[in-house]
């Protein structure tokens, strides 16, 4: 069995043992015609006359919204929060990729998205938006909105200071997620390799491994990557050293890639993500 199918088998075992936690990024919501994180930030950049660049640096994703916030002189930063509302439509509907992720039944779902696509369909999952929700949580499965959502627009984690103070403002949530790393497998879907959020998660993985002195024996975590650079040896080794195995969505086995034609999603990346996640439901991993 080659490396790809071995990784799928590892994920299936974690799922069967109720040890799989799926992190859902903006790339999933994009299939419901919602903006990506980068597109949202670009809108803020345009409003403040920030120099136009095709690709933002990692730190700009959080700094540009902070610039806008600092320049916003409206009462209570009303304009800043209104622009966020305008960028996240409330009438968006879940897509079939959302549905597939929920149907897998992972132990917990975690999302950095601000929309409510997963909320619409995640029956049986208790929604956690802030620390106080964890204190009164009673369910066995959580949908953790670790950056908040549009129902509490002023509590969204979006600008630089929100990220810098996250460990203080979301102390219980961060501790809970870090504790899951001890014996749960994390699967990241809908994130890019240069995503600030992914960088944060990877640092958590590395920290836990070092603190528990189990770096060499710690279980693997997985990332579905859409980057053309994902196959580079230096990146593979870099992330492997941090406990993260990269599954390149643009280097799939031919028999898996051939299944994408039947997935009714507009974007090729969404179709590729779907057929890979669908393998987690199949009794026989390899496709004939």
Give structural notes:
With 288 residues, this protein is an alpha/beta fold. The protein has two domains: 3-34 and 93-278, 3-Layer(aba) Sandwich (Rossmann fold); 41-87, no CATH class. 43% of the residues lie in helices and 11% in strands. The protein has 14 helices and seven strands. It has a seven-stranded parallel sheet with strand order 3-4-2-1-5-6-7.
Summarize the helices and strands and which ones pair or pack.
Blueprint: H1 3-16, E1 20-24, H2 26-29, H3 37-48, H4 60-71, H5 78-87, H6 96-103, E2 108-111, E3 126-128, H7 131-135, E4 142-145, H8 160-164, H9 166-169, H10 171-180, E5 185-189, H11 196-211, E6 221-225, H12 233-240, E7 244-248, H13 254-257, H14 268-278
Parallel strand pairs: 1-2, 1-5, 2-4, 3-4, 5-6, 6-7
Question: What is the count of β-strands?
Answer: 7
Helix content: 40-55%
Element order, helices and strands?
Answer: HEHHHHHEEHEHHHEHEHEHH
Major sheet: 7 strands, parallel
CATH architecture of the largest domain: 3-Layer(aba) Sandwich
CATH topology of the largest domain: Rossmann fold
Structural class: alpha/beta
**How much strand content do the residues show?**
5-15%
CATH superfamily of the largest domain: TPP-binding domain
CATH class of the largest domain: Alpha Beta
Task: Give the overall silhouette.
Answer: globular
Low-confidence stretches: none
Strand order of the largest sheet: 3-4-2-1-5-6-7
Distance between the termini: 13 Å
Radius of gyration: 19 Å
Average pLDDT confidence is: 91
Treating each run of at least 4 consecutive H or I residues as one helix, how many helices?
14
How many distinct folded domains?
2
